[in-house]
Amino acid sequence: MNKLIFILIFFASNSIFSQIEIDWLKLRDVYYESEYREDLFGYYQVAHFGETVESLDNKEVRITGYMLTLAPDEGIFVLSENPYADCFFCGFGGPESAIELRLNPGYDDFLMDELVTVTGTLRLKRDDVSSGVYIIDNASAFKK
User: Fold this and answer.
1) How many domains does the chain have?
2) What pLDDT band is residue 54 in, cutting at 50, 70 and 90?
3) What pLDDT digit, counting tens, does each position of 84-127 carry?
4) How far is C-alpha 34 from the geometric centre of its chain's CA atoms?
5) What CATH number is associated with residue 111?
6) Is residue 96 included in any domain, yes or no?
7) Most CB within 10 Å of its CB: which of 55, 60, 62, 129?
8) Distance, CA of 98 to CA of 8 (rounded, Å)
Protein backbone atom coordinates (compact mmCIF):
# COMPACT_ATOMS: atom_id res chain seq x y z
CA MET A 1 0.00 0.00 0.00
CA ASN A 2 2.82 2.44 0.87
CA LYS A 3 4.50 1.73 -2.48
CA LEU A 4 1.27 2.53 -4.32
CA ILE A 5 0.89 5.83 -2.48
CA PHE A 6 4.52 6.70 -3.20
CA ILE A 7 4.09 5.94 -6.91
CA LEU A 8 0.91 8.05 -7.12
CA ILE A 9 2.60 10.97 -5.35
CA PHE A 10 5.67 10.64 -7.59
CA PHE A 11 3.66 10.80 -10.82
CA ALA A 12 1.38 13.58 -9.55
CA SER A 13 4.33 15.72 -8.47
CA ASN A 14 6.16 14.97 -11.69
CA SER A 15 3.26 16.25 -13.80
CA ILE A 16 2.78 19.31 -11.57
CA PHE A 17 6.41 20.35 -11.84
CA SER A 18 6.91 19.47 -15.51
CA GLN A 19 5.36 22.75 -16.69
CA ILE A 20 7.47 25.79 -17.42
CA GLU A 21 6.50 28.73 -15.20
CA ILE A 22 5.99 31.78 -17.43
CA ASP A 23 4.95 35.33 -16.74
CA TRP A 24 3.36 38.07 -18.78
CA LEU A 25 6.65 39.89 -19.25
CA LYS A 26 8.03 36.93 -21.25
CA LEU A 27 5.00 36.98 -23.53
CA ARG A 28 5.80 40.55 -24.59
CA ASP A 29 8.62 39.17 -26.77
CA VAL A 30 6.49 39.64 -29.88
CA TYR A 31 6.24 42.34 -32.53
CA TYR A 32 3.81 42.97 -35.35
CA GLU A 33 4.34 43.76 -39.01
CA SER A 34 1.82 44.77 -41.59
CA GLU A 35 1.71 42.06 -44.26
CA TYR A 36 -0.47 41.60 -47.29
CA ARG A 37 -2.63 38.45 -47.14
CA GLU A 38 -3.89 37.32 -50.53
CA ASP A 39 -6.44 35.01 -48.90
CA LEU A 40 -7.91 37.99 -47.02
CA PHE A 41 -7.37 40.58 -49.79
CA GLY A 42 -5.66 43.14 -47.60
CA TYR A 43 -2.96 44.12 -45.12
CA TYR A 44 -3.05 42.75 -41.60
CA GLN A 45 -0.87 42.93 -38.51
CA VAL A 46 0.95 39.60 -38.27
CA ALA A 47 2.71 38.49 -35.09
CA HIS A 48 6.42 37.63 -35.12
CA PHE A 49 7.81 36.04 -31.97
CA GLY A 50 11.21 36.52 -30.41
CA GLU A 51 13.46 33.65 -29.33
CA THR A 52 12.16 33.71 -25.76
CA VAL A 53 8.59 33.03 -26.84
CA GLU A 54 9.51 30.72 -29.74
CA SER A 55 11.17 28.37 -27.25
CA LEU A 56 7.81 28.03 -25.44
CA ASP A 57 5.79 26.93 -28.48
CA ASN A 58 4.03 23.60 -27.82
CA LYS A 59 5.49 23.38 -24.31
CA GLU A 60 3.61 22.66 -21.10
CA VAL A 61 3.35 25.96 -19.24
CA ARG A 62 1.89 27.44 -16.06
CA ILE A 63 0.80 31.08 -15.76
CA THR A 64 -1.37 33.13 -13.40
CA GLY A 65 -3.83 35.77 -14.54
CA TYR A 66 -7.43 36.95 -14.55
CA MET A 67 -10.12 34.70 -15.99
CA LEU A 68 -12.30 36.46 -18.53
CA THR A 69 -15.53 34.51 -18.99
CA LEU A 70 -16.46 36.02 -22.35
CA ALA A 71 -19.02 33.40 -23.40
CA PRO A 72 -18.91 30.52 -20.92
CA ASP A 73 -21.90 28.74 -22.50
CA GLU A 74 -19.92 28.58 -25.74
CA GLY A 75 -16.64 27.67 -24.01
CA ILE A 76 -14.98 31.03 -24.70
CA PHE A 77 -12.54 31.84 -21.92
CA VAL A 78 -9.49 34.08 -21.93
CA LEU A 79 -6.71 34.43 -19.39
CA SER A 80 -5.61 38.04 -19.10
CA GLU A 81 -2.70 39.84 -17.52
CA ASN A 82 -5.22 42.47 -16.42
CA PRO A 83 -8.81 42.50 -15.17
CA TYR A 84 -11.56 42.85 -17.78
CA ALA A 85 -11.81 46.65 -17.56
CA ASP A 86 -8.06 46.95 -18.25
CA CYS A 87 -7.48 44.24 -20.86
CA PHE A 88 -6.20 45.05 -24.34
CA PHE A 89 -9.57 45.31 -26.08
CA CYS A 90 -10.73 47.80 -23.43
CA GLY A 91 -7.75 50.12 -23.64
CA PHE A 92 -4.69 48.72 -21.80
CA GLY A 93 -2.01 46.32 -22.99
CA GLY A 94 -1.87 44.52 -26.30
CA PRO A 95 -2.90 41.18 -27.78
CA GLU A 96 0.06 39.60 -25.99
CA SER A 97 -1.60 40.38 -22.64
CA ALA A 98 -4.33 37.77 -23.21
CA ILE A 99 -4.34 34.03 -23.87
CA GLU A 100 -7.22 32.16 -25.47
CA LEU A 101 -8.03 29.05 -23.40
CA ARG A 102 -9.15 25.65 -24.60
CA LEU A 103 -10.30 24.38 -21.21
CA ASN A 104 -10.54 20.70 -20.39
CA PRO A 105 -14.03 19.53 -19.36
CA GLY A 106 -14.84 20.36 -15.76
CA TYR A 107 -12.69 23.51 -15.66
CA ASP A 108 -15.30 26.06 -16.66
CA ASP A 109 -16.85 27.24 -13.41
CA PHE A 110 -15.24 30.65 -12.98
CA LEU A 111 -16.29 34.20 -12.28
CA MET A 112 -15.24 37.19 -14.36
CA ASP A 113 -11.86 38.54 -13.17
CA GLU A 114 -11.22 35.59 -10.87
CA LEU A 115 -7.47 35.16 -10.26
CA VAL A 116 -6.43 31.70 -11.48
CA THR A 117 -3.38 29.67 -12.42
CA VAL A 118 -3.64 27.86 -15.75
CA THR A 119 -1.61 24.91 -16.98
CA GLY A 120 -1.59 23.47 -20.48
CA THR A 121 0.18 23.51 -23.83
CA LEU A 122 1.07 26.97 -25.15
CA ARG A 123 0.58 27.41 -28.88
CA LEU A 124 1.70 30.45 -30.85
CA LYS A 125 -0.72 31.69 -33.51
CA ARG A 126 1.27 32.86 -36.49
CA ASP A 127 -1.23 32.81 -39.36
CA ASP A 128 -4.66 33.39 -37.86
CA VAL A 129 -5.25 37.15 -37.67
CA SER A 130 -8.83 36.78 -36.43
CA SER A 131 -7.97 36.69 -32.71
CA GLY A 132 -5.11 36.83 -30.21
CA VAL A 133 -1.59 35.47 -30.63
CA TYR A 134 -1.56 32.87 -27.83
CA ILE A 135 -3.65 29.78 -27.07
CA ILE A 136 -3.33 27.30 -24.23
CA ASP A 137 -4.65 23.90 -25.31
CA ASN A 138 -5.67 21.16 -22.86
CA ALA A 139 -5.95 23.87 -20.23
CA SER A 140 -6.73 23.29 -16.59
CA ALA A 141 -7.41 26.28 -14.35
CA PHE A 142 -7.11 26.45 -10.59
CA LYS A 143 -8.49 29.20 -8.37
CA LYS A 144 -5.88 31.12 -6.36
Assistant:
1) 1
2) very high
3) 877 666 666 788 899 999 999 887 789 999 999 999 999 999 87
4) 24
5) 2.40.50.870
6) yes
7) 62
8) 34
pTM beyond cutoff 0.85: no
- Residue 13: inside a domain, yes or no? no
Q: Specify the 3-state DSSP secondary structure of 94.
A: coil
Q: Does residue 14 fall inside a structural domain?
A: no
10 found inside a domain:
no
Q: 3-state secondary structure string, 10-79?
A: HHHHHHHHCCEECCCCHHHCEEEEEEEECCCCEEEEEEEECHHHHCCCCCEEEEEEEEEEEEHHHCEEEE
The CA distance from 39 to 56, in Å, is: 28
68 is in which domain, residue-wise?
19-143
Let me know: does 62 contact 79? Beta carbons within 8 Å: no
In angstroms, rounded to a whole number, what is the distance separating the alpha carbons of residues 135 and 100?
Answer: 5
